[in-house]
Amino acid sequence: MFEPTILLQILWTGIATSAPFVLLTVGFSLTLKVTGLWNFAQSGQMAIAFYAMFFALHGLGWSLPAALALAVVLTCGAAWLIEVYGLQVFRDRGSDNLMFFIFTLILSEFIIYVITLIFGTEPETLYESILSPVDIVGGIAISDWDKTGVALAAFALAALYGFMRYTREGQFLAAVSDNAKLAELYGISAQRAYRVTAVIAGLFIVAAMYLIGSHGGVVPNSPLELVLSAVIGTLLGGIGRVFAAAWASIFLALIQSFSILFIGSRWQNLLLYGFLFATILLFPRGVRLSWGRR
User: What is the DSSP-derived secondary structure letter of residue 124?
Assistant: First the structure.
């Protein structure tokens, strides 16, 4: 019924467009794994990352590397400040999880509102044109943006895996995520682990917002929808399973891509929220595959 070339094109497009969502989901899932908190302040950090790059490129006339550096400094700095002077304060007070949720949600709304006052509500892009050169490989259109997105996501995931598995700092994060109080008895600082996690998540956010901003328009409210995508991937992959959440994001992107064969594009957001509802209702601990053992 469908030509193989068309199906392969949709498959590749789905994988490529999943790259920024994979990055956002991993940053969100890692934060949840280590801190145990649903940190919706990351949507505010997404807005900071994009508009820092946008202002540096269009307002200051800086080069792309300089704009990325500014975004990293401001985004990771904001993440660190939120952790030290926000979340840690609530921990010291012994606040419950609801207070953390309310604080991060209100803070993200505040950041986005301030950015809206400064930059307005018109969609903005990092480049004047979002079109990128395209190569035809085996009948499949592969753009330079596709290559950049897939390579950046793959590199970031590999770097995180190596960091978590082969470095002392990464092993400390794993220890704190398992049991923060027990880790501290062994001399591992939970506060340091939380701050390192915040910075790592900030790096993933900057990378994701660069891909999103160079491929389409962004408005200040866009991060609120983006963080929901990260939540869906986190829930579908399973809380605490960071790399499974990455695969879940790819799966969701493929579902959306192939859905154009059956439904109009305007229904794709409804499909996304449908997955969120079904995931919460049916898979509160994520989708886990059982494999037989010999």
Answer: B
